[in-house]
Amino acid sequence: MLISNPKSGILIPIPQYPLYTATLAAHKGVGIPYHLNEEADWATSAPDIESAIRQALADGIEPKALVIINPGNPTGALLDEATMSQVVRLCEQHNLVLLADEVYQSNLHARATHPFTSFKKVVRALGSPVPLVSFHSISKGVTGECGRRGGYFECANITEDVIALMYKMVSVGLCPPLGGQVGVDCMVRSPKPADASYALWKAETDATHAALAQRTKTMAARLNALPGVSCVDSPGALYLFPRIHLSAKAIEAARKAGKQPDTLYALELLDNTGICVVPGSGFGQKEGQYHYRLTCLCPGVEEYVGALERFHHEFTERYESI
Questions:
Q1: pLDDT, tens digit, for every residue of 135-156?
Q2: What ranges do the domains of the chain cover?
Q3: Order of strands across the sheet with 62-69?
Q4: What would the pLDDT profile of 47-73 be if each residue is shown by its tens digit?
Q5: d(Cα 49, Cα 230) in Å, to the nearest integer?
Q6: Which CATH architecture best describes the domain 198-318?
Q7: Of 62, 66, 86, 95, which shows the fewest CB atoms inside 10 Å?
Q8: Domain 8-188 has what CATH class?
């Protein structure tokens, strides 16, 4: 709906969830990239977004909306309230719709130091008129666990006539599976302390979150101990996004194979260990940098990380990497 002509642009964080650029391509819109700051734990910078807006305008692109992924995919980064307030004011200033992808809000590994705050709360606290669309999903928490699909988006500060048009557009092809609908209902109406099922639900969800937090911490520490690897210990989501420093020999081997260097690394990792990671080139990254995204879901973390370590040392030796 926002893409009214081929010059309509949507601001997207880099690295990003690839379906944003894919959707824009399908609807003939333009992705406007803004880079997250890896050196500051993949922080979102309002000045960097402002710079991307200025560049887009200079290129004849009309920015229509800003996507924020919080917690981040693939980085796992979490925005603080001060940054969120800056983002909301930026959207006010440039007349942008704020698209808040908050599907990982339940996946927090450091709740005491990195709590989740919704953009709806910040918009309301600021009394902001910014049009906001918030996204949530059962697939990225403990309700659906990536197998069952269901989700919703909530609109704030959007007029009823526009919402009516949204209903009309989605009703043409809407056919949500029953299981997904049940899952969404379970997510938005989870057990309350007075309910008989609350104790079991609380124990199960707490155990899942504690296990994910421990796996993430262990994996980040072990990855950071490897030569030529640096990894931000993500406070949220289900992923780590380590940076790998590759030798000229490895880069040349990738070029000869017609692949990106981090794709070569990922494919060899898959062939040698059976571990499937996604190359950073699939998410977007700065020129000359290489990453990969891996999940923190595997229960056998010692075996999993041990295989990663052995492969990295073998890859490094084979290509004289570091």
A1: 999 988 788 766 788 889 999 9
A2: 8-188, 198-318
A3: 30-35, 8-14, 62-69, 97-101, 132-137, 151-156
A4: 999 999 999 999 999 999 999 999 999
A5: 25
A6: Alpha-Beta Complex (3.90)
A7: 95
A8: alpha beta
